[in-house]
Amino acid sequence: MTTPLSATSSHDSSHVKLLAQAQQACQKKGARLTKTREQVFLLLAKRKGAVGAYDLLAELKELDAAAKPATIYRALDFLSKQGFVHKIESINAFIMCHHFGDCNHPVQLLICDECGHVEEIQSNNFDLALRSMADANGFTISHQIVEAHGHCKACQ
Amino acid sequence: MTTPLSATSSHDSSHVKLLAQAQQACQKKGARLTKTREQVFLLLAKRKGAVGAYDLLAELKELDAAAKPATIYRALDFLSKQGFVHKIESINAFIMCHHFGDCNHPVQLLICDECGHVEEIQSNNFDLALRSMADANGFTISHQIVEAHGHCKACQ
DNA sequence: TTGCTCAGTGTAACATTATACCAATACAAA
DNA sequence: TTTGTATTGGTATAATGTTACACTGAGCAA
Ligand SMILES: [Zn+2]
Ligand SMILES: [Zn+2]
Ligand SMILES: [Zn+2]
Ligand SMILES: [Zn+2]
C-alpha cells in the first residue's frame, strides 16, 4: 500500500462518478469500501470489458505489490455482494455493473466470442419468465445466471 | 483398459437404453463412441445428478487405472458436443441430458443449493425470449447458459 | 484514554479445475 | 498398403479459487 489512490485516476472521469455512486451506496448500507476494495473497483470501472481475477491481480500489484490471490478474491466477493460487479461464470471473469443501486438485480449477459465484448442487458420480462417457469416446478430462485454466447453486432 | 464394459452395468437398465440411443445418434453422425467415451457416458447415466470432472475421473479409474484428467475432459468434450451431456458452468459440474436426439437444444437448469438436485427444464418460449432480446442488440446467439440457483420443491 | 471486539488484511500454503504438448496408436479413405 | 486424420497416452503445468491463522486497526463502551 504505497501508491496513493490518486495515481489510479486518469483523464477519463466516468469511473469516478461510478465510484461516487458506490461510495454513497456503501454509506447507506454501512458497508466499508476500504482502500483495496476501492482500488479494485476502479480497476474494474476503467476496464471496457470483462477481466479475469488473476489479470486484475496483476494490475492491482502495480498499486499494491503485496497483493495476493486472496486479496483480489476478497475484494471481488465484497463488490459482488454489493452488486457493483458481476461474475461471468462461463468464462471465469468479472465485469463492472453499470446499473447498480438495485443491488441484487437479475443479470443477463451477451458475450461475444469473437471480440470479447460483454453487454449487460435488462429485462424484467425475462426474469419473470424464468421465475414462472421455476414456480411451475416448485422451485424458488435465489440467483440466476443467464449468459448468451455468440457474435456481437460488430462481429457478424 | 482391463475391465470389460459389462462390469459397468447393474440391475438398473434405464441407462442402457440411453446408451443405445447415444450409439444410434453417433452412428447417424459418423461420430465415434469409443470405449472410454462409452464408459464415461455410462458413469454419467447412472448418476442421479451432477458430478465434477475429478469425481468422475475417480470413478473411471476403477475401470481404467491409467485414466488421467485429460482422459475425462476429452470424453466430456465429446459427449457435450454430441449433446449427451451438459456442463453446469456455475458449479463446474456435468450432468447427463435426458432429452438428446436434438443435439444442440437450449438448456435451462434449476439447481438446488440445498440438496444439489439439478432439474433440466424445457422452454422454447424462454429460448425465443432470449433470442429476441439478443436480436434487439444485433447479437447472434450460438450457445446459451441459463442456470437458476435456489431451493427445490423438496427443500423449501 | 484504555481496553474490547470484530471486520478486514497479510501471508503462505493448499485445493480444484483445465489445458498444452508431443509421441504413439487406431481408424478410415484412397 | 499407404496416407491422412482422429483419438489416446503420458507428463507436466497453467489457470482458477480456497483455507488457515495470526495480526492490525477502526469503532465503541466503560
Ligand atoms: Zn448489473
Ligand atoms: Zn464482437
Ligand atoms: Zn439437455
Ligand atoms: Zn433440494
Description:
The structure is a homodimer of 156-residue chains. Chain A contains five helices and five strands; from the N terminus they run ααααββββαβ. Chain A folds into two domains: 1-100, Winged helix-like DNA-binding domain superfamily/Winged helix DNA-binding domain (Arc Repressor Mutant, subunit A, Orthogonal Bundle), CATH 1.10.10; 106-156, Dna Ligase, domain 1, CATH 3.30.1490.190. Helix content of chain A is 42%, strand content 19%. In chain A, the strands form two sheets. A three-stranded mixed β-sheet of chain A has the order 4-3-5, covered by helices on one side. With 156 residues, the first copy, chain A, is α+β, with helices and mostly antiparallel strands. In chain A, strand 3 (108-112) and strand 4 form a beta hairpin. Bound molecules: zinc ion (4 copies). One zinc ion (ZN) binds at residues 112, 114-115, 117, 151-152, 154-155 of chain A. Chain A binds a DNA duplex (30 and 30 nucleotides) through helix 4.
